Request: fold
Amino acid sequence: MTRITVNQASDYVGQTVEIAGWLYNLRRSGKIAFPIVRDGHGIMQCVAVKNQLPEELFETIKNLTQESSLIVTGKIRAEQRAPGGYEMDVENVDVVQRVPEADPYPITPKEHGVDFLMDHRHLWLRSQRQHAAIKVRHEVIKAVRDYFDSHGFTLVDTPIFTPAACEGTTTLFEVDYFDDDKAYLTQSGQLYNEATAMAFGKVYCFGPTFRAEKSKTRRHLTEFWMVEPEMAYATLEDVKRVAEEMIVFIVGRVLENRREELKRLERDVTKLEAIQAPFPRMTYDDAVKLLQSKGSEIQWGGDFGGTDETILTADQPSCIMVDRFPASFKAFYFEPDPERPELVLGVDVLAPEGYGEIIGGGQRIHDVELLLKRIEEHHLPKEAFDWYIDLRKYGSVPHGGFGMGIERCVAWICGLEHIRETIAFPRMLNRLHP
Ligand code: 4AD
Ligand code: MG
Reply:
């Protein structure tokens, strides 16, 4: 028997094939049963007619329980009214494991609270919306890789155990690393990317990063995946151009390949179709003025809060870029603005509809004396940065890059309220399980 996946049904109309999956739902009357089967690739409505099947088999089908695993054999028929456009006329069902009535599948079509669903995340992933979000995530990651791979970037992955902070010491996860030594889980691959950029010109890393942030917001995970390009001989303007081009590319890919999923997520795709270059640009100075005019309490010199980012992007049709932040709240490595040294050449890309920051990056310090001064001002252990300082001694050049958190990008593209649904097993302040 030919086994197909549900998404291949259109190639098998009129043929008898088998589908291996799980029972998603079951509707039945006395003489007919409609087992709805999902196989990870799609959902197939099956039709089992009592007087066309052995009695025992019809009884088995009629009494199937939700999420029982089964292999259905039947003939594929085009059916406009069916969810995917095809139906299967059942000829046989092999039940692989029947979920017992006494201990039924815990997630039912009724409404469940999000804590309950998160506790059952290992099962919740089978639900349609969750499935769609993870499919979009895969598409985003593939698009990111394709973008960099086709623009001359070399993939060089960076370590997860690191000896020092990159993004500030308050959000480091510390781990024991043999013989009384301490290591930290990486917050960002950037510092290592700066080394590899001097070896390869243009690089990117893509991997998990960790922040021991005590933030309980819809935008924060303690473990998230970040893609980080870094370019030698590059300025803030180059960084902005690449960030913009990459985002337009990603959104285009999702619109091209994941329409089904966006529909299932009830995403308004016209909002995504509006994502076109060039993105509006504004300086931090102007952003602060705009925020104040809209009632924010922010003062010049303060970092944006989540609410500020929401205000800035709430009625923006596209992403916006904010640059030239005060050095006071930015990481030690940012190159100062030559015209106003109290500012740094950093840029954040904010996603529209209130999603806020999805990218942070900028130009790095390339002068060794200035770097040493900053390391001291930030009370960072110089020994841990010896190798990083070397990069300013042996062929230093202006360079820059950025980091994009995959989950924030996916949450925005999917139109999800909370970032926790964009990763299979989210890690948050209050969640390490399952
Ligand atoms: O702005 P961040 O902290 O920048 C860096 O780590 C730089 N070293 C990156 C670079 O220039 N190579 O983080 C970059 C992005 C943010 O814009 C956001 O998308 C994501 O990483 N991010 C988080 N995502 C989920 N949960 C968190 N706690 C995050 N913190 C940052
Ligand atoms: Mg940032």
User: Anything to note?
Assistant: The longest helix spans residues 128-149. The domain at 122-422 is CATH 3.30.930.10 (BirA Bifunctional Protein; domain 2).
